[in-house]
Fold:
Amino acid sequence: MTGVPLPDRRLVDADVVRRLVAGQFPQWAGLPVRPVAVSGWDNQTFRLGDDMSVRLPTAREYAMAVDKEHRWLPVIAPRVPLRIPTPLAKGVPGEGFRFSWSVYEWIDGSPGAVDDLTAFADSLAAFLVALRQVDAAGGPEPGLHNWFRGGPLRVYDAQTRRAIEVLGSRIPAERVTEIWEAALRAAWDGRPVWFHGDVAVNNLLVRDGALAAVIDFGTCGVGDPACDVVIAWTLLSGASRAAFRAGLGVDPGTWARGRGWALWKALILLYADGDVDAGRVIDEILDA
Structure:
């Protein structure tokens, strides 16, 4: 397919992490290192002792986010109503690992197990509204560091249309194309604001049934916040989706572009590996 190529991912094991920590942060050398139950695509995460985590980019492109997170997360944290990661130390390449890496405070919580999805949607919307209000001056503009989130959807136009063509009869191609083209027409001309860039289930930690923290700011930046609307179709529906939209207070154009971001990602996942959940998301987008 045409479009931005996938990075060359390289994974490591806990022994490499132990050596990196011991060599660069000897004060933590005696702490146990173990993989977390759910690790992401852009980064591998290991728990370091009881109170810290180690986060290692899986490719050069993802490593671009390390400096950004260390620079901006301390600025954002006091201005949002939920906990976000706190960087404690930044590591450098070593032990065969080629990229910068991070040590963070550990945040208790896990994805899923939400008691009230509408209340969850309200909390998430309030977080994103607060994030948009953080001073965006000097913040990172869209680029390869965040796969162009916050910029125009048109960067993925050729890739999306190719996916629609290849999927053919597996999707209602005409209707899908209409939704995509409506998203492209809904041009953004607002002032740049902060966005998270990957508001997905695995990046939303739940504790005692309620949203407790938002993690993984690797795709954050300043620009068009429409990419943060995607979860309206990947997780929410009915009353919870309506509550999320009302809480965000976004205009119809932003909602349409968010729908476009959701459609692009679902089409790519369905094309790449037949992801069943991607098919469900496309159905949600079509029914909305």
